[in-house]
Automatic annotation (TrEMBL), chain A:
PANTHER family: SULFATE TRANSPORT SYSTEM PERMEASE PROTEIN, SULFATE TRANSPORT SYSTEM PERMEASE PROTEIN CYSW. One of its GO terms (molecular function) is ABC-type sulfate transporter activity. The gene is cysW. This is Sulfate ABC transporter permease subunit CysW. Coiled coil: none annotated. The keyword Signal does not apply.
Automatic annotation (TrEMBL), chain B:
One of its GO terms (molecular function) is ATP binding. This is ATP-binding cassette domain-containing protein. Residues 3-237 form the ABC transporter domain. It comes from Pseudooceanicola sediminis. It comes from the Bacteria. InterPro entries: AAA+_ATPase (IPR003593), ABC_SmlMolc_Importer (IPR050093), ABC_transporter-like_ATP-bd (IPR003439), ABC_transporter-like_CS (IPR017871), P-loop_NTPase (IPR027417).
Amino acid sequence: MSDLSLHHPADVTTEARPARIALTTLILGLTAVLLLAPLAAVFAEAFRQGPMAFLAAISTPDAQSAIRLTLTISALALPLNAAVGLAAAWAIAKFDFRGKAVLISLIDLPFSVSPVVAGLSLVLLFGSSGWLGAWLALHDLRIVFALPGLLLATLFVTFPFIARELIPVMSEQGRSEEEAALTLGATGWYMFRTVTLPNVRWALLYGVLLCNARAMGEFGAVAVISGKIRGQTTTMPILIEMLYNEYLSVAAFSMAALLASLALLTLVLKTLMEWRHADLLSATRRH
Amino acid sequence: MRIDIDEIAKSFAGTHALHPVSLSIPSGAMVSLLGPSGSGKTTLLRIIAGLEAPTAGRVLFDGTDATGITVQARRAGFVFQSYALFRHMSVFENIAYGLRARPRGTRPSAAEIEQRVMTLLELIQLPGIASRYPAQLSGGQRQRVALARALATEPRVLLLDEPFGALDARVRRELRAGLRDIHDATGLTTIFVTHDQDEALSLADMVAVMSMGRIEQVGTPADIRKRPQTDFVRSFIERPRLAIA
């Protein structure tokens, strides 16, 4: 936004000044109304009764447990998704094999299936009357209404984020740098560490951040499988809904503000990293 | 190192990229695989490097079967068509890569690596670019860095895929002479792929003309010029130079 290029000499390829101002104003206005205003409203509501009420709302045992649960789930989901996403993107971008088109469609499946349906399908599979329910009960394994179920639901919903970021970058880069590493004597693992991974680090980081934001914010799939047991299987988004339904609006908005802050924090981290490594980025011509 | 290609064939999903071809390359020779695109020359080069496995046939290095040897163990220096420099590493790190990739026991010390990189930068006549990144180099500089990187590990053979393809005419002439000098100085068996008959005939000791996955004729440049053995070789050698050169 700092360079609207209004001060540059008239350029044959740009629009007339009024058109540029109108377009810029329109998009800034829309951004403000659609993105910033709701966020501001959440924070305003959270602090309506002052910072002490906000602190009290986020330090109740239920709130603390929800925060811990949400952070635990995303901390578990991120490395799992990063590993699987990298493997899937690598296979798709660098090799030809039968069933590749099917794999690409499968990766996109969570985008097209409603999260509620995903949650229900997990209950159907692992619930007490589900396909695997009897076997799980026999071995005293709990998936539905417990952490494993919440994790599975989160993994399902966030599955495409990292792979989808990586596939175009890896396809564009091709295999030749990796082949060069191999002809120079590098083992597969050394090549992966020194060539493959550094070449996709920004795409990977971006995918991880998107994945993190979604993992912390996921409601639909998690709500179905959680059972909403307070202090045990209640994540932050679920607790927010419960508090809101109980007309505890300051508490609800305080949790919402905290959740939004966590998401904003990841965005700030990404911007900071891009800013600090600007030299290297321009040298390698990668986002 | 002497290289024998013994009845090598390669097919991709039913199409034959290489019909069984055989070729003997004496130690220290500079050989060109010449042919139009789709003639199988790059596939043959990649098979020698171990980047591609043949469907049938054997590759012999100094008389021993190398067909099943991994690409890492073959120690074939390879210069890729687009150079494939590691974009996130400086020129120094690019050239040092093969030495640093060695297991701890055989890895040279940091000082030895630096010495080697500096010697190679002198060899390619580009001292002083060690700290630059590939994106900051011209096409000709990139090609020479790729050559230095391939030479750093003291390969047994040097393989180049269209090494001058992406360069303008003046730089191309310079680098041709540079490659010939490096070949003569190191005595490395060198095989390069090209579609440019002028390049092949002026630079190589021995030329293998390829078409449609077959080797049409093998001989010295003078042989190929004076006594083309097939219609294809005759028309390919005599065709007017393309305007790109």
